[in-house]
Write a structure and sequence with these properties.
seven-stranded mixed sheet; Rossmann fold; Metallo-beta-lactamase, Chain A; six-stranded mixed sheet; 22% helix; 2 domains; binds zinc ion; alpha/beta; 19 strands
Length: 348
């Protein structure tokens, strides 16, 4: 392992995001570039218009669904675990447990192994492959929930709270705010696991990606468009919609809906109150504090690079555990909430 081959010298933060010199590609660049490796389909990682894109087959399918023709010039699929030579580096994608198709990027060059984890979580998610631990020299991580106050309860318990509320208020509908990619399908799958067999009702903006998951073999049960159902028939039913739809005109068609929001941020009571959420569910597709620190221990990297979020706290923790920390402060990350809310417009 040569010192001059240290990843700081060949994996650099640029205005276009992380750039790997010896492989000549960017990872999750915020603007269109010639060569991009994409970790997953969320809008703060996958952008349209790259010349060449390498990603998992599911991530490419998600990009095609979202961007159509603009998904990229040449789309190259790489299955999990399959090594690929890109110029001088060897690269492989391994599951990140975040959303369908989400991957960590493992890059090897000059005797060093770097893992760029993208977004990830360690909690159970029936809709995607679980996070795989890859020991490495440098681990690149996000820290969206990188404070000890963030501890996500098991998602099953949060779903049980939702079903309890449905029992308590049979005359009301439950309107659950979920992001279109990942959260919607995970909440649906968890409801099915908890024994909810009735049809679930969707805002139109959630339909294309739910369909993509179903085509990818994820069982979501019977789904209907909420707009096709008569107003009076929604008592006792569960409806899923993008978070912004909870407070807009669209939601007024349902009988006295209970406003529910599934997000890691629901741990912050004030956020729930501000948004008029009656039943906050702490369900996140990002690692909480315990998952972040567990992962740092398991990958045994001597160095951790933190892309965004609560960088200082995690770097401080790393230092106390003999791990060198570095804040990358990548721009435009962690905006999944805002980005996806812009996509909530329902087709007419
Ligand atoms: Zn994400
Ligand atoms: Zn992200």
């Amino acid at each position: 392992m040569k010192r001059e081959a240290h990843p700081e010298n060949w994996l650099q933060v640029t205005g276009q995001g992380l750039y790997c010199g010896p492989g000549d590609f960017f990872i999750d660049p915020p603007r269109s570039v010639e060569r991009a490796v994409i970790t997953h389909g969320h809008a703060d990682h996958a952008r349209p218009g790259h010349g060449w894109v390498l990603a998992t087959p599911h991530t490419l399918a998600i990009m095609r669904t979202r961007f159509g023709e603009r998904a990229g010039g040449r789309l190259q699929a790489l299955d999990y675990g399959e090594p690929r030579r890109l110029r001088e580096v060897t690269l492989r994608l391994v599951p990140a447990g975040h959303v369908l198709g989400s991957a960590q990027v493992v890059i090897e060059w000059g005797g060093w192994r770097v893992v760029i984890s993208g977004d990830y979580k360690r909690q159970l998610d029936p809709t995607c492959q679980p996070f795989e631990v890859v020991p490495c020299d440098v681990f690149v991580t996000e820290a969206t929930f990188g404070l000890p106050v963030f501890r996500h309860p098991p998602a099953d318990e949060e779903i049980a709270r939702l079903l309890h509320s449905v029992d308590l208020f049979p005359d009301r509908s439950h309107l659950v705010g979920v992001y279109a990619l990942g959260k919607a399908q995970r909440v649906i799958a968890l409801l099915r696991r908890a024994g909810w067999e009735r049809p679930l009702y969707l805002h139109g903006a959630l339909q294309p990606l739910c369909r993509l998951y179903q085509e990818g073999g994820v069982d979501l049960g019977e789904l209907h468009l909420a707009s096709g159902v008569a107003k009076g028939e929604m008592a006792g039913e569960i409806i899923l919609a993008p978070p912004a739809a909870l407070s807009d005109r669209w939601s007024r068609r349902f009988p006295d809906p209970v406003a529910v929001l599934a997000s890691g941020w629901m741990r912050v009571r004030q956020r729930a109150r501000q948004r008029g959420v009656e039943l906050p569910l702490v369900i996140s597709d990002h690692a909480d504090w315990d998952e972040l620190t567990l992962t740092l221990q398991e990958v045994q990297a001597g160095e951790v690079w933190v892309t965004h979020g609560s960088e200082e706290a995690l770097i401080h923790w790393a230092r106390l555990h003999g791990i060198r920390g570095r804040a990358l402060s990548l721009i435009g990350r962690g905006e999944e909430e805002q980005e996806q809310e812009q996509e909530q417009e329902e087709p007419p």
